[in-house]
Specification:
One of its GO terms (biological process) is carbohydrate metabolic process. Helices cover 55% and strands 3% of the residues. By secondary structure, the chain is mainly α. The protein has one domain: Glycosyltransferase (Alpha/alpha barrel). The longest helix has 18 residues, at 89-106.
Length: 384
């Protein structure tokens, strides 16, 4: 299958994007002012303004830091602008040009080849701006899902081509090594010394496959999604429905229960119920969601990284849109309120970590959360 050609050019934005919003969204009030304040702080604290559209990774840069943020934090800033633009017509008008800039900058991480022969987004910008470095499948899956979200919003062929290219990379990352414990699964990274297979490298792959099946109608996407889903359930799901983090090459399981590793399987099950028409998948989505609500109080959520929580909550809203419920927004709002009161630095407006340095990804996550809290419930189906 021929690899789609990925352009580094910008994308249509601003008024053109606003015109694509449904009438109900165009009539909605502007996105919450807190989203705008987090966004403005992100720009002040991390934007380099060197013409690339890229950001630094840490506020108060140190001499040993790379000039540009790595792919995972950058992708979350990209998604922050996507969520802002999709909030309402005012957001599309105000932030369309910025979204076009970060979408173009995303392609500065793209390499036409990797260790499996497929192109993908590397963990650092490629030459001449950077070294390129390793490739992580989960990094690519977040970008692939952002491309799908943008395609379903703007209907631009380039976004769909990007998403399909990412899925071809994921297909190449399926482990065929019979010497590994529990053979199968998509590896976390292409690093030669790492054979970990993670919930986060498999369930977002399933989610991307389901979205591509919905767009294209091609059965192969569903088949692959079921393969990633089945392996993860067999190896990493706990009896209560929640998920461990990853299987190591020595056969031991890293059992940390991260929020994003619960949110994505919830959405995968909800999407499977749509695609297959089988109620059992929706029942499973609700079971995992209920178990996660029992586990994650606001205080416990504050001990999880903000980007993990952004992914978790947005996928809960996607479940609500498919199940016809509205039960998860209050918890998302409570977390946002807590972070505004307790983690926002009043001097800089940036998200303060519990420990360590101030990072781009945390503030970008808060932009996403506040932006999506400004969406009308009818729009939640567009998430991921």
């Amino acid at each position: 299958m021929r690899q789609p050609v990925l352009s580094r050019r910008g994308f249509a934005a601003g008024a053109a994007l606003a015109a694509l919003l449904p009438a109900a969204a165009r009539a909605a009030p502007p996105a919450a002012s807190r989203a705008e304040q987090w966004r403005a702080a992100m720009e002040r604290g991390f934007a380099l303004n060197d013409g690339t559209g890229l950001y630094r990774e840490y506020a108060s840069a140190e001499a040993s830091d790379a000039k540009y943020a790595t792919e995972w934090p950058f992708s979350q800033a990209h998604i922050a602008y996507l969520d802002l633009v999709m909030a309402d017509a005012a957001g599309a008008k105000r932030h369309g040009a910025a979204l076009a800039k970060v979408r173009a900058a995303e392609q500065l991480f793209w390499s036409d080849t990797s260790t499996t022969g497929r192109g993908g987004y590397l963990s650092r910008v490629v030459p001449p701006l950077g070294s390129g470095d390793d490739l992580y499948y989960d990094d690519n899956e977040w970008v692939g899902l952002a491309q799908v979200q943008h395609y379903r919003f703007a209907r631009d062929p380039a976004s769909l081509a990007h998403a399909k290219a990412v899925f071809e990379l994921i297909r190449s990352g399926w482990s065929e090594d019979p010497s590994l414990p529990s053979p199968g699964g998509v590896r976390w990274t292409q690093k030669a010394d790492n054979g970990d297979r993670n919930t986060v490298s498999n369930m977002p792959a399933a989610q991307l496959g389901l979205r591509l099946q919905q767009i294209t109608g091609e059965r192969a996407y569903l088949d692959d999604a079921l393969r990633y889903y089945g392996w993860t359930n067999a190896v990493l799901q706990r009896p209560d429905g929640l998920y461990h983090d990853h299987l190591k090459t020595d056969g031991t399981i890293e059992k940390t229960v991260w929020t994003y590793n619960q949110g994505v399987p919830i959405a995968v099950n909800a999407l499977l119920s749509q695609v297959t028409g089988e109620k059992r998948y929706l029942d499973e989505a609700k079971r995992i969601a209920a178990a996660s609500r029992q586990r994650f109080t606001v205080a416990q959520l504050d001990r999880q990284p903000p980007p993990f929580n952004a992914i978790y909550f947005k996928n809960l809203l996607l479940l609500d849109s498919i199940a016809g419920t509205r039960e998860h927004r209050p918890a998302m709002q409570a977390y946002a309120d807590h972070m505004w009161r307790n983690r926002r630095d009043p001097a800089t407006g940036l998200c303060r970590p519990r420990k360590g340095r101030v990072e781009l990804i945390d503030t970008a996550a808060m932009v996403q959360i506040e932006a999506v809290l400004g969406w009308a419930p009818e729009q939640w189906a567009a998430l991921y």
